[in-house]
């Protein structure tokens, strides 16, 4: 069973389009600000691209998507294929474990940039041991040194006090910094989200290097549950 995608993900994403609209708009705005030097993109954890912006993808000459879900490729083509064809972007959708094959993917496409599309925060669900999951994520990030890459991922998720669907969701940008100011900002952000109870750590808080400009985006995953997303782009 696919714990981070598959039929249940597609069903939820389909039904939640209105509730997630603001989140998707924030993601599209953040992506529009990610200036990429490469014209070739590897999109990891693409699924159907329910939360991905066609506009941003149209800025590439070549897009290769990767997902373990057999439904991902046909649904991604259905959602983004026409827009990419209209902008002469060559789209190829692969079904494969991109983490297991990352080394080969990077070697085969030395000039491509890489975007982890809401998949690094899911990694802990695919790895029985959280310490091992943290170590593997850190190893993956080290392997990206020297490459142009970005990621959208959950940092934390958990219950919120009141349904947020009807309200304007908070959003902010800030640079990664390891100071107590950062802890205070985190606390403020939790309050803005209406966080209550226990939140799950998705083991991604150290993914971006110091000084990376990161967009913090609220995702009202369910009426009573919110996910804190981060989106950043790293250029070397
Ligand atoms: C939360 S969904 C991503 C949502 C997607 N970016 C969108 O906008 O619809 C996470 C996706 O990552 C995929 N995934 C999980 N592990 C993977 C792996 N090792 N390689 C490739 N894809 C993976 C899952 O199948 C799932 O489709």
Provide the descriptors you would attach to this structure in a database record.
nine-stranded mixed beta sheet; 236 residues; Rossmann fold; single chain; binds S-adenosylmethionine; alpha/beta; 25% strand; 7 helices; 32% helix
What does the model show?
The chain is globular. It has seven helices and nine strands; from the N terminus they run ααβαβαβαβαββαβββ. It has one domain: Rossmann fold, CATH 3.40.50. It has 236 residues and is of the alpha/beta class.
Rounded mean pLDDT score = 93
Show unreliable segments. Answer: none
Name the helicity range: 25-40%
Largest sheet descriptor: 9 strands, mixed
Termini separation comes to 37 Å
Distinct small molecules bound, one entry per kind: S-adenosylmethionine
State the CATH topology: Rossmann fold
- Reading the helices and strands in chain order gives HHEHEHEHEHEEHEEE
User: Architecture in CATH?
Assistant: 3-Layer(aba) Sandwich
Layout of helices and strands:
Elements: H1 7-15, H2 21-32, E1 40-44, H3 54-57, E2 62-67, H4 72-86, E3 90-95, H5 102-108, E4 113-117, H6 130-143, E5 149-159, E6 171-175, H7 180-193, E7 200-201, E8 213-222, E9 225-234
Parallel strand pairs: 1-2, 1-4, 2-3, 4-5
Antiparallel strand pairs: 5-7, 5-9, 6-8, 8-9
The structure holds S-adenosylmethionine.
What is the gist of this entry?
This protein has about 240 residues and is an alpha/beta fold.
């Amino acid at each position: 069973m696919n714990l981070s995608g598959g039929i249940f993900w597609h069903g939820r994403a389909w039904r939640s389009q209105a509730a997630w609209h603001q989140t998707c708009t924030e993601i599209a705005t953040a992506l529009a600000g990610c200036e990429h030097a490469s014209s070739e993109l590897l999109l990891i954890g693409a699924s159907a691209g329910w939360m991905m912006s066609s506009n941003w993808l149209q800025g590439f000459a070549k897009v290769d998507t990767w997902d373990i879900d057999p439904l991902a490729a046909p649904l991604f083509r259905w959602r983004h294929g026409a827009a990419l064809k209209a902008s002469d972007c060559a789209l190829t959708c692969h079904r494969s474990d991109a983490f297991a094959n990352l080394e080969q993917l990077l070697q085969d496409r030395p000039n491509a940039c890489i975007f982890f599309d809401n998949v690094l925060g899911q990694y802990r669900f695919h790895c029985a041991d959280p310490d091992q999951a943290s170590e593997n994520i850190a190893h993956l990030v080290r392997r990206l040194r020297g490459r142009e890459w970005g990621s959208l991922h959950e940092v934390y998720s958990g219950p919120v006090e009141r349904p947020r669907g009807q309200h304007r969701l908070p959003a902010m940008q800030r640079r990664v910094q390891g100071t107590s100011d950062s802890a205070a900002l985190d606390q403020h952000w939790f309050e803005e989200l209406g966080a209550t109870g226990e939140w799950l750590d998705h083991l991604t808080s150290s993914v971006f290097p110091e000084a990376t400009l990161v967009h913090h985006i609220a995702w009202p995953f369910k009426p009573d549950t919110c996910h804190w997303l981060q989106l950043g782009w790293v250029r070397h």
